[in-house]
Design goal:
Blueprint: H1 6-9, H2 16-25, H3 39-52, H4 55-67, H5 70-80, E1 87-88, H6 90-97, H7 112-125, H8 130-138, H9 209-217, H10 223-231, H11 235-238, H12 249-267, H13 276-290, E2 295-296
Antiparallel strand pairs: 1-2
Helix pairs in contact: 7-8, 8-10, 8-13, 9-10, 10-12
Bound molecules: fe (ii) ion (2 copies).
Length: 297
């Protein structure tokens, strides 16, 4: 496969730019842009979020929607899910991810490790179960895909099913016109490659850090945690309520946990940096409760 040029690899000034854009679409308080009662207004506001997006963010979505085809996802699964790249423990993986340095402002922005610890610390303060805290700690470790040289649009971004019609609630839907799957009518119908309520486990999602980490940790965590990890970027479903027709009853029940996790992911960022050295013993113990000393990545 050809190595994409730098601009195609990194349209964003750091992964954070995508997350900031998601946050602007789903502000913590105030207007719920997608839940407006006036259907015309809803449409209008949806367009505004796209129009107001930075050019870097727009380019990121254009590349994501153009490239995340059914075949692209199959090839990435083949490439990465044998998990034969590295062997490391969870804390080691956190330190490895932390070597990913964004081009964003180092004085005001959190490192990857700090984002993970802020998320888990907020979950801990809210008195959530230990596996929930652990999930907050590890949920973005799949971003080490960037360190393997993967382009940003194949690591982060709102995820969606491939192999069936794209919901028009997916942000920057118009960029799907460049996706090769538009040429295949079998992948363009409502069900496409799937059957009604087949369950998300049978559905191929656009490729990124969620799916990759799910495969690394799937033998070790409770089902609720695995749903949070696998679908935390599936905004079209957990925020917009789309793709219910692909879900089975278990998916619907488990999505309550995906929704419970989302505010911790989006809204716990503050400039107050967690004290890594002080927190480390607590988390090393928690990691040891669920994970072996090394995992395959
Ligand atoms: Fe994430
Ligand atoms: Fe996150």
């Amino acid at each position: 496969m050809e190595t994409p040029n730098v601009a195609e690899n990194k349209p964003l000034n750091g992964l954070e730019e995508w997350e900031d854009f998601v946050k602007s679409r789903y502000p913590e308080s105030g207007a719920q842009p997608f839940k407006a009662t006036d259907p015309n207004k809803k449409e209008e506001q949806f367009r505004n979020y796209e129009a107001d997006a930075r050019p870097t963010v727009r380019e990121f979505y254009r590349l994501n929607h153009r490239s995340q085809s059914y075949n692209f996802v199959q090839s990435k699964k083949k490439e990465f899910l044998a998990l034969n790249r590295r062997q490391m423990g969870i804390w080691e993986a956190m330190e490895y991810l932390n070597t990913l340095v964004d081009d964003s402002d180092p004085d005001t922005d959190l490192s990857q490790l700090e984002h993970l610890l802020q998320t888990s610390e907020q979950i801990r303060k809210d008195g959530q179960p230990r596996w929930f805290i652990l999930t907050g700690l590890i949920h973005d470790l799949g971003k080490i895909l960037c360190l393997y040289g993967e382009p940003q649009w194949a690591v982060v971004g709102d995820t969606f099913p491939v192999g069936c019609a794209w919901s028009d609630k997916i942000v920057f839907h118009q960029y799907f016109s460049e996706n090769p799957d538009t040429q295949n009518p079998k992948l363009q119908s409502r069900l496409g490659a799937y059957s009604e309520n087949c369950g998300l486990d049978n559905v191929h999602m656009s490729w990124g850090h969620d799916e990759y980490l799910y495969h690394v940790v799937k033998d070790y965590l409770p089902k609720e945690a695995l749903y949070m990890i696998r679908y935390h970027s599936f905004y079209p479903a957990h925020r917009e309520g789309e793709y219910d027709y692909l879900m089975n009853d278990e998916d619907r029940a488990m999505f309550k946990w995906v929704r419970a996790f989302n505010p911790y992911d989006l809204y716990t960022k503050s400039h107050e940096k967690p004290d890594v050295a002080t927190l480390r013993p607590f988390y090393e113990e928690l990691i040891g409760e669920y994970f072996p000393p090394t995992l395959r990545w």
